Amino acid sequence: MVYDLIFGKGLEGSSKYQNTVSKYKITLQAELARLKIKKKVIRNEDLLDDAVKNAVKLPRYARVNTLVIGKQSAIEKFRSKGYELIQYNQDITFNKFAELVTKLENKQFTEDLHIPELLVFAPNTDLHSDPLYKSGGIILQDKASCLPAFLLRPPAGSTVIDACAAPGNKTTHLAAIMNNTGNIYAIDMDKKRLGTMSMMIARATATCATVLNEDFLSTKHTDDRFRNVECILLDPSCSGSGIASRLDNITGVQEVSSERLSKLSDFQVQALKHALQFPKVQRVVYSTCSVHEQENEEVVKSALAELGGTFTLVPVLPAWTCRGRKVFKDGASCIRASPDETATNGFFVALFERVPVHLHDTAPAAEECDALPAKLGKKRRKRRKRQQSLKSENENGSKTDGAEELTVSEPEVSSRCSGETESFLLSKKRKDLSTAEEVMFLATRTKQRSKKVAEQVNR
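^ thats the sequence. predicted structure below, dont judge the formating
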């Protein structure tokens, strides 16, 4: 807010925070003038350290919003305004492409190497007054910020949560990927940012998105709205230490305190674990605009350690050279971004994918199978007792229809486990399964054990 007030276009709105900062506008401007006199400079940019001024200038990225206009149409519109489209060989290396985009000159642009709908312009290109921007045809979004939705890639028609969604760039990207089908729940607890997000979603015509003013950590996994959520994009609050345009060197605040990092990472771990526990979620992407391991690899490591094999990390974008740090076994499955290496803001992305039920390394040992009847609970023991009674009647030649309903034969187990197992079992939690279904659940682990469990139930 201080930056917008002193260096930008001023503050819009009248929140108590904005009003408080605005009271000090004259004082802040006077301090800025004194600082420039002390440093013997005239321009504001001359207050920057040489290291900052000489740092890599990031390109201007513009994502084509395919809900409004096709990419080729957008390219032709820019070319008709005098922009030159720079072509490159499709076998260009990652490093060569990063070098190419940092050397784009005024009125030049190119197509991104990784994200199909992303256009790259020369640094300092101002597109805020362009009709495509005003109409929602392009969205000004750093390439690194496009990676989470691009990697999550939810199928058309799916149900998705964008947790901590404001200001809404990633929400609109998800809507474009899904072609405005299905449902996106854009959740954010900040009422003030919700207004900005609602306007952005409306301008992008993302009609499949629903804005919710809620705390993501307080959302219930059993809520009817979220019972079919398949994909979650989690980009929680972070230190923002990867943003290249920060003015920390002017304010003197160049390091994030260990106390703040600890609080942020605690929240991030809680949010990630919460996301991974939605009953039908299959893919979760976790991202930050931080450079700190404590907010990135350490958060992923903690979540994986506590969820014990339910999810695995997907090694995304193999050709992406800037990888996650190997602070744990699969750290390199994650990706990082940085101004020097990828010509973007600093960023971190990890993609989780649910392990299929039949691959979980949680099968009971043989002795556990032997003890199964004792674990079924009082109600199930009664049901088993009734089965035994019906079986006894069958042996005496008086088989009833009830026995057919309650008895699960081995062929039935094998049949259900062969073709329908995955979709059938993923739709339920083990505690909700009936005796017969529990047999099928166990049978998916291994054929040998399924036979033993079937014998236990039918004995």
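Residues 258-276 form the longest helix (19 residues).
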